[in-house]
Amino acid sequence: MKRCIVGGLAALLMAGGQITSAPPASAGCVYGGNIISKCDGPIQPDGTWQRCVAAPHLIPNGASSWLVPERQCNQMGPGQFSADLGFADPPTHIDG
């Protein structure tokens, strides 16, 4: 019985060590300027990643108006081209 408990505990500790030593996902964000946020997802095996940009969008309503965040996502990376400079700056992956 003691061997089973010790063996199970050893296996659990080994699995936990592998999880904590795994490399972190390489993703990051920048905030401010004329955008609310610009965030890159992890780099895929083909070298591309998804970039999502949130920008304020003005909603007029009679005598009042408000800003609502509008989010757009595009594919970035080698062989990808975005004519929208909001997406292309920076042209490299944003690391966190």
What's the structural blueprint in terms of helices and strands?
Blueprint: H1 2-20, E1 28-32, E2 35-40, E3 49-61, E4 64-76, H2 85-88
Antiparallel strand pairs: 1-2, 2-3, 3-4
Overview of this structure, please?
With 96 residues, this protein is an alpha+beta fold. The protein has a domain at 26-88. It is 24% helix and 39% strand. The chain contains two helices and four strands. The chain has helices at residues 2-20, 85-88; strands at residues 28-32, 35-40, 49-61, 64-76. It has a four-stranded antiparallel beta sheet with strand order 1-2-3-4. A hairpin with a 2-residue loop joins strand 3 (49-61) and strand 4 (64-76). It is elongated, with a radius of gyration of 22 Å. 4% of the residues are buried. Mean pLDDT is 75; it is low at 4-9 and 16-26.
Rg to the nearest angstrom? 22 Å
The stretches of 5 or more residues where confidence is low (pLDDT under 50) are: 4-9, 16-26
Beta-strand percentage range: 35-45%
Secondary-structure-based class equals: alpha+beta
Arithmetic mean of pLDDT: 75
In helices, the fraction of residues equals 10-25%
Distance, first to last CA:
46 Å
Largest sheet: 4 strands, antiparallel
Query: What is the number of E strands?
Result: 4
Shape: elongated
Name the strands of the widest sheet in spatial order.
1-2-3-4
The run of helices and strands is HEEEEH
For this entry, what is the oligomeric state of its chains? single chain
Number of helices: 2
